[in-house]
Design a protein that fits this description.
single chain, eight-stranded parallel sheet, TIM Barrel
Length: 344
Amino acid sequence: MAGTYRFSFGPWNIHEGADPFGPAVRNSIAFGKKLSMYRNLGFGAVQFHDDDAVPDMNNLKPEQIIKKARAVAKLLKNEGLKAEFVAPRMWEDPRTIDGGYTSNNAANRRYALERSLRTIDIANELGTKLIVLWLAREGTYIRESKDSKLAVERTAEAVNKMLEYDGKIRIAVEPKPNEPMDHTYIPTTGHAVALSLLTCDPDRVGVNIESAHAILAGLDPSDEMGFALAFGKLWTVHLNDQNGLKFDQDKTFGSVDLRRAFNQVRILDKYDYGENGEWVGLDVKAMRTQKAPAVKHLTNSREIFLRLLKVSRSLDDSKMDKMIKERDYEELDRYIIESLMGGK
């Protein structure tokens, strides 16, 4: 429990303030300028969607995509940054209205796979072997419209094609129970781990756990992290917070439930998360009311993580073990709350 942590976020986390119920309220910031902000904010890696790196990629040939990704790699190097992962963004294209890998239309499924392979090309140019799959529209608004068994099999088949395309990539599935679909086929960490067992190389299929997604499933994020850690499949995290079972809010980490955030930090640290090169990823949005430049949500989240890390490492394990042995959980409860409040 003495490791150090490196932090990442995606360029979409410096955003214009649009939400499901209103338009943008801040001016856009150019991608290059966002990259130049990372180091000053205390971050060392960039999370990418494929079209963050290569805009309008659907209108480009594979060799053109590779060339443009190579140029972005130079920008990263100039800023002293790494690419943490690349994720195919398939939920905005008209061909994925009914899902990509699970679409009822064979041509649309082929598009989803082709887009995923191009994502791998981009990742290779950016110097990362981690692909994140947020299966956003791999679900249904009406259960009778799709065969759930077939949908899971088709998802595993698509993952297999990606694994076969590049023998060195690793794929981290990012589960979420709902939104934008009513129901998704891989809604929790357990589903993601189980999906890996259907693939041709389970050792290369893991999990990206987002705090808010676990909360939306009615689960505790630290428990989900522990589950993935038990399988050796926690390859990245998206830390944030969530106020209730509403739309995905991506609030500043720890801003709603500090104890819930504390337990996420504690289990990551207890089991040496990061020792194999994993990054502490943030997926947080500035409040819509915040004036530009809106970046405090990023620095605040990082600072809260580090402060909670300090609290966790200050706890007296022998004292806690005694309380647990004596089953004095109320005293343990008081001890944790008191520590979070700064002690006596």
